[in-house]
Specification:
Blueprint: H1 12-20, H2 35-53, H3 59-68, E1 123-125, H4 134-143, E2 147-152, H5 157-162, H6 164-173, E3 177-182, H7 190-198, E4 202-206, E5 217-222, E6 229-233, H8 239-243, E7 249-253, H9 258-273, E8 278-279, H10 282-296, H11 318-332, E9 337-341, H12 348-363, E10 374-378, H13 381-395, E11 402-404, E12 415-419, E13 436-439, H14 448-456, E14 461-466, H15 477-482, E15 488-489, H16 492-497, E16 504-514, E17 520-521, E18 524-525, H17 527-535, H18 538-551, E19 560-563, H19 567-579, E20 584-588, H20 593-605, E21 610-614, E22 628-631, H21 638-646, E23 658-666, H22 674-681, H23 685-694, E24 704-707, H24 709-722, H25 727-738, H26 745-752, H27 756-760, E25 766-769, E26 772-775, H28 778-786, H29 790-793, H30 797-803, H31 815-829, H32 834-842, H33 851-858, H34 867-875, H35 878-894, E27 900-901, E28 912-913, E29 916-917, H36 919-925, E30 943-946, E31 951-957, E32 974-977, E33 980-984, H37 994-1000, H38 1002-1005, E34 1008-1014, E35 1018-1019, E36 1022-1023, E37 1026-1038, E38 1044-1049, H39 1055-1061
Parallel strand pairs: 2-3, 3-4, 9-14, 9-15, 10-12, 10-13, 11-12, 13-14, 16-23, 16-24, 19-21, 19-22, 20-21, 22-23, 31-34
Antiparallel strand pairs: 1-7, 2-5, 4-8, 5-6, 6-7, 17-18, 25-26, 27-28, 29-37, 30-31, 32-33, 33-38, 34-37, 35-36, 37-38
Helix pairs in contact: 4-6, 7-10, 11-12, 11-39, 12-13, 23-24, 25-26, 25-28, 31-34, 31-35, 33-34, 33-36
């Protein structure tokens, strides 16, 4: 066997060959979720080989013998005897099975014409002389289709004209046609869309040509017979593309490539349900389409600043919806001064306006319209005009708001858009004049003019907007004005997925320096030591110049920012680049305003190619044309790293990608690569190392991360040390940060920039410390950090066992559950006897329903008759109670969940939509373990019918396989839209079975359905919890054994769940 990659199952023959080879063989077990597909592929090849080797007359018999061993398989029927040969011989050809070719109603004159390519086959069409013509094949496909979907970035009249016979046939037969297209480069012909609409097609158009990602060209021909086919390739709907262009198109089939067809259909459905694509009606939308096509062709007239209201409803994008949800969660948690952080150009003002509209809706009932008094503050008139237009668009009110700028004064003063300069005497308004105050560019808040505004007004709601919470002097306005809390921060990968920022190409390059002996404390190198090292290393500077020339497309056209350690280092780098023929200069926080303006003007004009800087992140440093970032200093802080990166992520018409050059040395043992890599990728801890090894295969579209060999090795070694910290490493780290006991879990996580996963996630539920096995818990680690293990050493066996279960609380995220758990534990802690404990539980009121959830979180297979006694025992342990409460404190601080009671008759249950639950918790909430004999910890199936409530609980794991990409399992359960979820039942569920009928008819029968979803089986802290999507209603289904059901959610799913469960970004 030749060396190379294989995916071959090991049978006895292969095992023998491997034993004889000198090559090193690597094998692994097939993932259980992928096994059916892998085994089928293996058997198909072996069966085809066997059938081709036996006598033709024996093939049918062999096939039937194979079918005999399969459950419920029907034997193949022998076909009609073949006719005698033309030579007159009486000998007939061996019998073979009949193949059904069509079924049609008796009224049809003849079956529809078949495509040249067999329905079950796959083919590549290249418009070659031996290929059937694409247009002719499409027309034939239409003849037998029951539904047709078309996806094309643009649609030309010549293409529609070419396919007219097939399209008219579809119209005559009443076959549904759906068309998705865009105004991309203005290439679509309005006449083509008008004709398609006239033929009965439903047409939807994406009008945002500047940011649309749709470049796909594809058809799918749905057939109820199960023989659907699709074409995916390079041909748009134009005559040349389908006849004589140099085009490649792959024809796939439901029989040969079922997973491709499944993904195609699911992805199309997701696009179709997206608000990005709007219904096109020639009678009402023709003018808008023509204008959009002209704009995309660059034929639009000059833009005009206006504050009039648009006729179109403003809907939040997914990233904006997430921000709105997180703002709402903060207010429900009692926080009414909130900071929203998002990059310039990502729609912060739209979020503020939508947030205001939500407040309006909350205050107003039926037939009532009260608008809270609003003050919006910015420092430029252009920003105020844009904000006023945005609020008017969102509220659909062209008269909303007044300007207070450049001499314009408000008349009513109820909804004011004011410049900070106009508010230099804010006393003209009463302190409580405004219900809502919004401050744009909040990083200016330290300035006297802004401080005067902030100190004068006392609104019910304060909202700060900023692209960076860091002031020019490095102090965070979040710490200064919001107690360190950021209500919502748009994550880098969400912004990239939404196509709001330019993609980045990040290169990690080894620079040959050894930083292992440079002092490092609390996440930072000693700046003076680091600077001296770099100033003495001209070879490193030469490598930076060399690699800049290597990776940047054209240094002569480059606009770069370089980040350095000190002023001296920045000056050194600027001089070195200039001497190397790349004009550069240095700016820093101490540079005069004139120096900054002149330097940045030189960069914009191209006179200077690089500006090297030190900690100069925002003030006066907004240069959209920056296309290269040079990181000439190590940065561990995710905040600083993202600020540096953000300087170049602004979109411009001429910038296709941001090039990021990060020069990496051999780091100090305490340096952490995981922090900035997680910020860059959005990956959790347990996936990060795998991504580094695999070359980061799953990134937002257009992005690329490449580490050279030396850097990759350095990063992997660092991740091995830092991502899964040993107990002894954590103990040293806690001691370094805490100093002395008592030191809380929340304080440590904040001080050390760590998360709950660092304490509870790595290495399982136990840890070995000084030769003793103890629970991996905060109490144990802190005890060894501060009292040499005395506290944990005095713990009882029961306490030690229960401390292993603390990770079961690390996901709790709704305030009602957090407060209920606290109340139960605190109340029981003061009970002197078990009978007093029983009285405490009885007196909990609504919170009593949470007791079984708390009980089964600690004892998954416990006996509910002992629930009160066991919980009393747990609550009386100050060690255990303190640990649970500290975890809940952390969860309360970081949670941004907007939890709601379930709808209808299930509203009294202690389950909240959008909150996260362990399997044991959610089952206990529905009465499993207390209302029946089954224990929550013993339930393993993904469905559970709770008879006493008449509720089907659906537990959905989106990624069935542990593999990052598994085509055979990925497209079973997914979000079609925020309110529609596609779910595949168990493989044994038939549509006519009692369970199938209950799913279909649940509404008329009075039963309910509640859906819970998680991305994967395991995460950073062991078993992943489920997010409750809430109650759902049956919409439609296809198939049987399994049934593919579409559910309509009574409450739209959270934006974050939508992002992970939908098939497209």
């Amino acid at each position: 066997m030749p060396p190379g990659l294989y995916e071959r199952l090991i049978d006895a023959e292969l095992a023998e060959a491997l034993a004889a080879t000198q090559l090193r063989a690597v094998s692994s077990a097939v993932d259980a979720a992928d096994a059916p597909h892998v085994l089928t592929t293996h058997l198909a090849g072996r069966i085809e080989s066997a059938l081709s080797q036996v006598d033709a007359g024996e093939r049918l018999a062999l096939a039937n013998r194979l079918l005999d061993v399969l459950p419920e398989a029907s034997p193949l029927r022998e076909g009609r005897p073949a006719k005698p040969s033309k030579s007159g011989s009486a000998k007939t050809q061996p019998a073979s099975p009949d193949q059904l070719l069509s079924l049609s109603r008796p009224t049809f004159d003849a079956p529809p014409e078949r495509p040249e390519i067999p329905l079950a086959d796959v083919a590549l069409l290249t418009n070659g002389p031996q290929d059937p013509a694409l247009a002719a094949e499409l027309i034939k496909e239409m003849a037998s289709a029951d539904r047709v979907d078309l996806l094309g970035s643009f649609i030309k009249w010549t293409g529609v004209r070419t396919l007219m016979p097939g399209l008219e046939s579809l119209a005559r037969r009443g076959v549904p046609i759906r068309v998705l297209t865009t105004t991309y480069i203005g290439a679509t012909d309005r006449k083509a869309l008008d004709k398609l609409a006239k033929l009965g097609a439903q047409v939807r158009v994406n009008y945002f040509s500047a940011s649309t990602k749709l470049h796909a060209k594809a058809w799918i021909f749905h057939r109820d017979s199960g023989y659907s086919t699709a074409y995916i390739g390079s041909s748009n709907l134009s005559r040349s593309a389908m006849t004589d262009g140099v085009e490649w198109n792959v024809r796939v089939s439901q029989v040969a490539t079922p997973h491709v067809l499944s993904k195609f259909a699911a992805t199309f459905e997701t696009y179709w349900s997206s608000s990005d694509y709007e219904h096109y009606n020639p009678a009402t939308d023709a003018d808008r389409l023509e204008e959009a096509l002209r704009d995309a062709r660059g034929m639009s007239g000059p833009s005009v600043t206006t504050t009039s209201v648009t006729a179109l409803a403003v809907r939040p994008y997914p990233h904006q919806q997430l921000m709105l949800e997180e703002l709402e969660a903060e207010r429900e948690g009692g926080h009414h001064a909130n900071l929203l952080v998002a990059a310039t150009g990502t729609g912060k003002t739209v979020v503020a306006a939508l947030d205001y509209a939500r407040l309006v809706d909350r205050l107003n009932g039926e037939g009532r319209r009260v608008l809270p008094r609003l003050l919006f503050v910015a420092h430029r008139k252009e920003i105020l005009l844009q904000a006023l237009r945005t609020y008017r668009d969102v509220l659909r009110d062209g008269s909303f708001g007044e300007l207070f700028v450049d001499g314009q004064r408000p008349s009513s003063g109820d909804h004011v858009f004011a410049s900070v300069q106009s508010l230099r005497n804010p006393e003209i308004f009463e302190p409580d004049r405004f219900d809502v105050v919004v401050i744009d560019e909040f990083h200016h808040a330290h300035a006297a003019s802004y401080r005067k505004v902030l100190s004068h007004f006392t609104p019910m709601e304060l909202l700060g907007l900023t692209a960076t919470p860091e002031r020019g002097d490095g102090v965070s306005v979040a710490e200064e004005f919001f107690g360190g809390r950021i209500a919502s921060e748009l994550r880098l990968w969400d912004a990239l997925d939404a196509d709001l920022l330019v993609p980045f190409h990040y290169f990690g390059i080894a620079d040959g320096t050894d930083l292992s002996r440079v002092s490092f404390r609390r996440g930072q190198y000693d700046q003076a030591e680091l600077s001296r090292l770099y100033l003495a290393d001209r070879e490193r500077a030469a490598k930076i110049v060399e690699n800049t020339t290597k990776y940047v497309t054209d240094v002569a056209q480059m606009r770069a920012l370089g980040f350095c350690v000190t002023v001296e280092h920045a000056r050194f780098m600027a001089d070195y680049f200039t001497d190397a023929g790349i004009p550069a200069l240095m700016l820093h926080g101490g540079s005069s305003r004139g120096e900054r303006e002149d330097g940045l003007a030189a960069l914009r004009s191209g006179e200077v190619k690089v500006v090297f800087t030190v900690d100069l992140f925002n003030e006066g440093l907004d240069i959209p044309d920056v296309d290269t970032i040079i990181m000439a200093r190590p940065t561990q802080s995710a905040t600083i790293f993202l600020q540096q990166l953000g300087r170049g992520l602004r979109r411009t018409p001429t910038k296709a990608v941001l090039t990021v050059l990060d020069f990496v040395g051999h780091q100090n043992a305490d340096f952490r690569f995981d922090i900035k890599l997680r910020a860059l990728t959005g990956l959790g801890r347990h996936k990060l190392r795998k991504a580094v090894e695999a070359g980061f295969p799953f990134l937002p579209a257009g992005c690329h991360i490449e580490l050279d060999r030396v850097t990759q090795d350095e990063v992997l070694k660092n991740l091995a040390r830092k991502v899964k910290l040993s107990a002894s490493q954590l103990i040293r780290d806690i001691a370094d940060h805490g100093g002395a006991s008592p030191y809380t879990l929340r304080s440590y996580l904040h001080d050390a920039d760590r998360a709950l996963a660092d304490i509870y996630g790595a290495g399982g539920a136990t840890a070995s410390i000084n030769g003793r096995k103890v629970p991996r818990s905060w109490q144990a680690l802190a005890s060894y950090a501060f009292d040499e293990g005395k506290t944990i050493g005095e713990a009882s066996v029961v306490e030690l066992e229960l401390l292993k279960r603390i990770r079961a609380f690390t996901h709790v995220d709704d305030l009602s559950r957090i407060r209920a758990y606290r109340e139960i534990l605190t109340g029981l802690a003061f009970a002197e006897t078990e009978s007093e404990a029983a009285k405490v539980v009885c007196g909990l009121g609504d919170n009593r329903a949470y007791a079984p959830m708390l009980f089964y979180s600690l004892w998954p297979t416990g006996d509910s008759s002992q629930m009160t006694a066991k919980l009393w025992q747990a609550a009386r342990s100050s060690l255990l109670r303190s640990e649970i409460e500290q975890v809940l404190d952390v969860r309360e601080e970081i949670s941004r969940t907007v939890a709601r009671r379930l709808d209808g008759r299930l509203a009294g249950l202690p389950i909240r939509s959008h909150a996260r639950y362990s399997r044991e918790e959610l089952l206990a909430a529905f009465g499993v373990g207390t209302q029946d004999t089954e224990k929550p910890g013993n339930v393993r199936e993904g469905v559970k019918y709770v008879a006493h409530l008449g509720v089907d609980i659906l537990l959905v794991t989106l990624k069935k396989s542990e593999a990052d990409f598994s085509p055979s399992t990925l497209y079973r359960d997914y979000a079609i839209s925020p309110s529609c979820f596609h779910w595949e039942s168990q493989s044994t569920t038939a549509e006519n079975s009692p369970t199938g009928q209950r799913y279909i008819n649940h509404a008329s029968r009075g039963s309910g359905v509640v859906i819970f979803v998680r991305e994967a089986k395991t995460g950073d802290i062991g078993t992943e919890p489920y997010t409750c999507l809430g109650t759902a209603r049956y919409l439609t289904h296809r198939g049987s054994k399994p049934m593919a059901i579409e559910w309509e959610l009574d409450r739209a799913m959270p934006a974050q769940v939508l992002a992970t469960s939908k098939l497209v970004s």
